[in-house]
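Annual report, structural modelling task.

Input specification for the heme C complex:
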Amino acid sequence: MRNKIILLAIIPLAIIIFISSCGEENIKYQRYYSDGSQLYKIHCQNCHMSNGEGLGQLIPPLTDSIFLRKNREKLVCYVNYGLNDSIKINGIDYQGQMPAEKHLAAIDLAKTLTFITNSFGNNQGIYDVIEVQKNLNNCK
Ligand code: HEC
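The model returned the following structure:
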């Protein structure tokens, strides 16, 4: 009987804690996303365009959600160290060069990546600072 009462008290409490922590995560995501959209305008939009579609054969689009998902761990390396490779996106070979954005802090990298991985048809959820730091350590 006593155990039951304790259980009945604990369950609603656990639910409240669970819901409020979801709310906090959601607020964090919204903040990252909206700051990220500003950072995108400043640092990326000139090349990748406001709709993320890139520019012809010169600049690859950010709309290929399969490429962005497959390369999620490398995205932060591309931005931080630049990219000078031959990559194929939507059937087109891109040979261009993306300059490094070394002056962006980890938090700004996280916000920019949260923005691009949740825009232009992408839907990957938050890309937080811990993930940025972990992936940066694994860039070749
Ligand atoms: C000066 C133009 C330029 C700027 C500014 C630029 N990029 Fe790029 N980006 C490129 C080019 C060119 C490539 C392809 C490089 C290659 O072929 O090796 C590329 C590739 C990429 C890729 C991988 C391919 C793809 O389309 O998914 C991602 C992701 C990316 N850029 C994100 C960003 C983000 C985020 C920013 C802003 C922080 C940014 N870029 C700023 C030119 C640019």
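The mean pLDDT is 93.
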